[in-house]
Amino acid sequence: MTAGLPPVGMAAELARAGGKVAVAVAGVDTADLDGLLPGVAFEAADVDSMGPNPWATSEPSAVVVVARTPTDLRRAVTLSGAFPAATVVGVIVVDTPPWCDAPGVPLSPGLGRRFLRDVGISRYGKNGWRVRVRFSQPQPSGEVAAAVARSFGGHHLNGYALPMAGLAGPGLADWRPGDPNTTFADERGPAPDRSGVTTSDLAIRTVPAARAVPAAKAAAPGDGWIDGRVPAVDHPADATWERLGSPGGYEALRGLALEPDAVPPVDERSVNPRGFLRTTTTGVADLAQHDGRWEIRHEDRTLVGLAASGGLTDAAIGRLRSLRGVRIAWRQAHTGPIAAVRAVAGLAAAGIPLLSDPPPPWAARALGPELAALTAAATEQELADDLRREEHSVRLRRLALAHHGTTARWRSLATRQGIAVPAGPTVSVIMCTRRTDLVGFALGQIARQRGVDLEVVLTLHGVPAEAPEVVQAVAAFDRPVTIVQADAGLPFGTVLNQAAARATGSFLSKWDDDDWYGPEHLSDMMLAQSYSGAELVGAASEFFYLQQIDVTLRRDWTSETMSNHVAGGTFVMSRSAFEALGGFRPVPRSVDVHLFQDLLRAGGAIYRTHGLGFVARRAAKGAHTWQEPVGYFLARAKDQWRGFRPSRLMEWEQ
Amino acid sequence: MTQPTRAQAQPRIRHNDYGVLSPPPPGTWQPRLSVSVVIAAYGHQDKLDLTLAALAAQSYPRHLMEVVVVDDGTDPALRLPEIVPENTRLITSEPGSRGRSNARNAGVAIAGGDVVHWLDADMVTFHDEVEAHMRWHHLADYLVVMGYVRFVDHRPGTPAPGDVHSAVSAGAADKLFDEAASEPHSWIVDLAERTDGLRTAGDSAYRVHVTNAASVNTRLLREAGPLDTGLVLGEDTELGYRLAQKGAAFVLAPEARSRHLGTSMMMRDGEQVRRYNSVFVPDHVPHMRWLRTHPRRQWLVPYVEVVVEAEGASYEDTRATVDGFLASSLNDIEITLVGPWSSVKEDRRNPLDSPLLDLVLARGLYRNEPRVRYAEQVPATAAPSPYRMVCPSGWVPAPETLRRLVEQAAEQGFGLVSVALDEADEVIAARLEHTGAFARAALVRAEGEPLDAAVHEVYGTYWLDGGTLGFLPAGQAEPPKRGKSEDPALMREVTRLRAENARLTDQLADVAKDAATPGKVPGASAKDSDAQAKASRQGGPKALLRRLR
Asked: Which residue from B386, B379, B396, B419 is spatially nearest to B320, judged by alpha carbons?
């Protein structure tokens, strides 16, 4: 798959420094490096096979990390604690997806930033990036790789609120991609210590399939794991069709625990719905066997050749975005059962619309029954319709990210080992209204939210809490409600701030009293927040119901992208960011627009996810804040339907 | 035989897609409706004898079938032969009102069946031909069904009526003639192939109403009116068109087989018939756009009836609206100005004090304009015009507005396109209504169902923005003026050529760019194509057009 790499352009400087250069590769063949550093002596190690001490030289003149894609770089970060210190560090990313912006080097002040003397960032090839830094004295080179990887994503704080992970044995980086806090030991243990305690809470261990202990149980000293303080979960390293088909393979296959927890997780911070395209230019491609591996091919052209591990990259997903869908041919499923399931889970997590016959039983078990059923739930005819295709994509994303994402996987593994995991985030829904007759409707919309721990801050703007319809609606609502009464004369922004002051959740959600929300509106926002890292996540107003003429419209907005605005009634914002900005401006209107701009100017990010779970109501002029006439919406609509016709994700029964 | 009440809920055929109907196989069902076979004959007693012999051998129940033969003045007069169906009547058309259409109309006038089955007097039907028509009519009461005719060689005297009767009775009608040498109704076969057996034929399905082998629901036929006796040829096509305006759906029934004795006029003199018809038929059938290409002239039946309500509007508003439509590039229109005209009286002594002065002026302005007519009420239907545009007074279309609107409606087959002009509590809208769609909707609507909702089901409805289409309030619209407003057709051509110019420039730039980057593979990656798309958005046809303008 790899071709020889063009020169990196740092060779002269590296040659001048003398000594040996340590090169770490991720997703790149070491044989392709010769052209990269002409005339420079180097020693290369591959993150997918390296042990705890990968390089012979402990004091290299420079360290260069060469990753195929940002996803591959994140795998190098996992092992970056083992990278030596150096004064010159280079990070090369060969290929990035279209939505990937230029990287930076946001080193933590306590981790080498004060020794930084020179930073260079430039294009490498057509789609790649090259980062070069020079320190005044040798610094841990892994921190540079971690900083560059972080800068490709939206997370300013790239932590995982999870058990600290230990890796025992080579080739496990993809179990915890992008987390520099991961520690590294050999297959027997022990997990390393720091400041007198173990550095990890839970370890994952490579063993041959025949000896693997099922994930439900931890490995014990008798199984070759000597560290009694840290539970270790086994991952069979050799579950390939080749191995399973050879003598003794049947035993191995029987011993193989085929369940979601046996599959290396999807790196959701880089393989996710970002970059989804609603209108496509290419038809349905096939995921089928070609030269011993799965490839995604369209009309005799290979779009993506899958890595043997089944791991997908963001750049590969980028090449699939213009497809209507991908049809899975399960017979001869990739290199092995776990790798195949991993690939399919990755495609689903990225929202690639999948077509499939019902998966074979082993795959159905490893995917999980719901996701397995969903891969076979759509027809090619449905995918031909833009809306049906996007609905299918959203359902796939939800399930795959919820069952196969890194966060989900470690939460599950930890829970099964009895390790406490932090509680999920809580959301405070701020619903401000001037119309008591809408309180029941709005609370009904909130009551049907699934998968989110929420409270409501019901904010009555100049209307009495004693109004019978309010009392009745609140009594019928079975989640926590705080009622805030604001004087009718106060500007909207002030009222919202008063409401936010009473909120206790770690995220704030702004809610419109008269619009329709799908039952997974909030969980979709939280999901998008978790993979995008943006401080504020929302959707565009794609669907409008024009009440006067009984027509539903869909406007053509790009979704799954960093943006500068979202619909005011859809967004969820981290409370810490909200407080850092000082909340809403104390003005009567345009409060959302100001908030968005304040956030962007402060260096924050706004992410716009899909808009299928929200329908804005457009009633007669004067009854709503919308000032534009009906014709304004008609002229901008891509689709229109007679009657109230939300997406299927709204789960709205006529 | 009495006219049944329309108790049965009617199935909803969308456009002409009659796939929602599934007729039972012949011989497996219980007929209920009666049929009148109407035959107009002139001369050729021998062929008539064969036609009647075949009809006498039909599988359709005798008590539900009658035959009406109209002798269109044959000398000596035609007679009923020995072998005839049980209920057969022979009448003669009146001298002074002769001709094929007159004769057929006279037959329909006395027909008592629920369905009229037209048949030529030189047709041999297969034993289940009538049943094959009727099984469709039992499924919906707004159908026109066309059978499958082949034209066979016929030598007078063979076969004999008795042979025909026994062969047809035995289900062996195909043994009577040299089938190998027979020819089909080729233009119908072609049309069927292009349109999935008419199911996707849309507004052009009416053409299969051919009176040699079609059948029509009698109520629908009487509503659409008789054959136009002013037409000597193409009169069945013209009636088919009017049936469509009454909501008819057109079914092709290839299983309703018959053989025509000898060739048709169309087969013998196709070019001549087409030349003749292209003179007389397009005047009646506005859908024949390809024969109505002249930019200025008028036609008997206009393509669009524009309805403007003058009552309650100022003279200036009414004038702005009517003048706007009269200046449309789509000039194949008629304007119905609705108002209480009978009570509008001029005060001849103090004309400026006339009550309803604005209506006096509105009536005066167009009294000699042939494209404006006055009506007290909005007529129930725009028929025979296929479209009706309803526009509130005081809203003015741009010259191209109506053409674009009707083109879009016709392309998508919409039954109703509403155009949002303005709003208070309610949205003020202009409406473009498809005559056939509204007639169909009225036939199938359920009790209490809004007519627009039924139109949506059978043809589809759509909303557009008035501003985008070029509608302006009277106060902002510029009145049409000779020599001032540019010829829209010319402007269209200029726009088209500009776009073409931009496209070619773009193509040239691409070729130059490709030549400059050797080894470039087109569409090598998604990122590539994305970048290209962006480039073409920024420097593409639109930008070039902007520069050219």
From this structure: B396
CB contact under 8 A, A98 and B425: no
Strands (E), B392-459: 395-396, 416-423, 427-434
Min Cα–Cα distance to chain B from A619, Å:
9
Start-to-end Cα distance in chain B: 70
Q: What is the mean pLDDT of each run of 10 residues along chain A (654 residues)?
A: 66 77 92 82 90 84 95 96 93 94 92 93 94 94 96 88 87 93 84 84 83 67 78 83 77 77 95 95 93 92 93 96 96 88 97 96 94 96 96 98 96 92 94 95 96 97 95 96 96 97 97 96 97 97 94 94 95 96 94 96 96 92 65 92 96 79
Low-confidence ranges of chain B (pLDDT < 70): 1-8, 483-489, 514-549
According to DSSP, residue A405 is labeled B
The per-residue pLDDT for B539 is 52
Domain coordinates in residue numbering, chain A: 11-153, 165-262, 282-337+352-392, 426-650
Contact residues, chain B, for A320 at CB < 8 Å = 526
pLDDT at B541: 52
Identical fold at A11-153 and A426-650? no
What pLDDT is attached to residue A621?
63
The partner residue sitting opposite B420, judged by closest CB among A98, A620, A631, is A631
- The complex's ipTM? 0.84
CATH number of B31-285: 3.90.550.10
Of B418, B425, B467, the CB nearest to A620: B425
Topology of domain A11-153 in CATH is Rossmann fold (3.40.50)
What is the number of CB-based contacts under 8 A between chain A and chain B? 67
* Pure H helices in B281-347: 315-326
pLDDT of residue B525: 43
Superfamily of domain B304-484: Spore Coat Polysaccharide Biosynthesis Protein SpsA; Chain A (3.90.550.10)
Three-state secondary structure string covering A406-431: HHHHHHHHHHHCCCCCCCCCEEEEEE
* Domain locations in chain B as residue ranges: 31-285, 304-484
Q: What is the pLDDT of residue A1?
A: 39
In this predicted structure, what is the pLDDT of residue A3?
A: 54
Candidate from B420, B453, B529 with C-beta closest to A634: B420
- Residues of chain A neighbouring B427 (CB-CB closer than 8 A): 548-549, 630
Q: What is the pLDDT of residue B536?
A: 46
Restricting to A residues 508-547, those with a Cβ less than 8 Å away from any Cβ of B are 546
Contact B167, B159 (CB under 8 A): yes
A352, A546, A642: best mutation site toward chain B, by most B Cβ within 10 Å? A642
Q: Do B31-285 and B304-484 have matching folds?
A: yes
Chain A nearest CA to B360, separation (Å): 34
Inter-chain touch B463–A127, beta carbons under 8 Å: no
Instruction: Give yes or no for A624 touching B (CB within 8 A).
Output: no
Distance to chain A for B453, nearest Cα, Å: 9
Binary contact (A549, B427; C-beta < 8 A): yes
Distance CA B237, CA B250 (A): 12
- Sign of CA pseudo-dihedral A549, A551, A552, A553: negative
Chain B CB within 8 Å of residue A214 CB: no
In angstroms, rounded to a whole number, what is the distance separating the alpha carbons of residues B37 and B88? 9
- A628 vs chain B: nearest CA distance in angstroms? 11
Cα within 13 Å of Cα(A399), Cβ side: 22
Give A 173-212 residues with CB within 8 A of chain B: none
Question: Is A300 in CB contact (< 8 Å) with chain B?
Answer: no
CATH number for domain A426-650, candidates 3.30.420.40, 3.40.50.720, 1.10.1740.10, 3.90.550.10: 3.90.550.10
DSSP category for residue B371: T
Chain B contact for A620, CB < 8 A? Answer: yes
